[in-house]
Design a protein that fits this description.
This protein is mostly beta strands. The chain folds into 2 domains: 1-34; 36-160, Immunoglobulin-like (Sandwich), CATH 2.60.40. Helix content is 11%, strand content 39%. It contains 1 helix and 9 strands. The strands form 2 sheets. Strands 4-5-3-7-8 form a 5-stranded antiparallel beta sheet, with no helix packed on it. Strands 6-2-1-9 form a 4-stranded antiparallel beta sheet, with no helix packed on it. A hairpin with a 2-residue loop joins strand 4 and strand 5.
């Protein structure tokens, strides 16, 4: 019994090492069923006197189109409560907002999301993280273009990601 448990553990570790946690298992071309897409998020973040503006451009470089994706915008400081969010966005806590991109065709057509938020207080800087948290189960072989961390100083300048 102990030998069988060890064998299962070794196999599990080997599979996790080869596939990776959240890796491209199920991607087209791997012999498994499932779409493959390359979601990318770019844009800029501006901070000035507690006002936080985000312009987010989401796109898909293919090869498969996606019906929807969800992007998380997380901030290192609490956000002021009571701000209305654009359609397709919800609060994920006092420091994060989750937004739907809607359909992303495989041709790279962009979806724009613009947020005007306020921070709790007037921080001199914050860190913003932008990341895809759901893409319909598609494999993404290039996740580096949809996961960003940006240091934003309270200068009013746009910090690009």
């Amino acid at each position: 019994m102990v030998a069988m448990c060890r064998a299962l553990l070794v196999v599990s570790v080997a599979v996790a090492t080869v596939v990776g946690v959240g890796g491209a298992a199920g991607a087209v071309g791997d012999g498994m069923a499932g779409p493959e897409a390359d979601v990318a998020h770019h844009g800029h973040v501006t901070l000035w006197d507690g006002r936080l503006d985000v312009v987010l451009l989401s796109e898909n470089h293919g090869p498969s189109g996606l019906d929807d994706t969800t992007v998380r915008l997380a901030f290192s400081v609490p956000l002021a409560a009571g701000h209305a969010l654009p359609a397709g966005c919800v609060w994920g806590g006092e420091r994060e907002v989750l937004c739907s991109t809607g359909p992303l065709r495989a041709d790279g057509t962009r979806h724009e999301t613009a947020l005007s938020l306020r921070t709790a207080g007037a921080p001199q800087e914050l860190t913003a993280r932008v990341a895809t948290v759901w893409n319909g189960g598609a494999a993404d072989r290039n996740p580096a273009d949809n996961d960003h961390r940006v240091l934003v100083l309270a200068t009013g300048d746009p910090y690009v990601f």
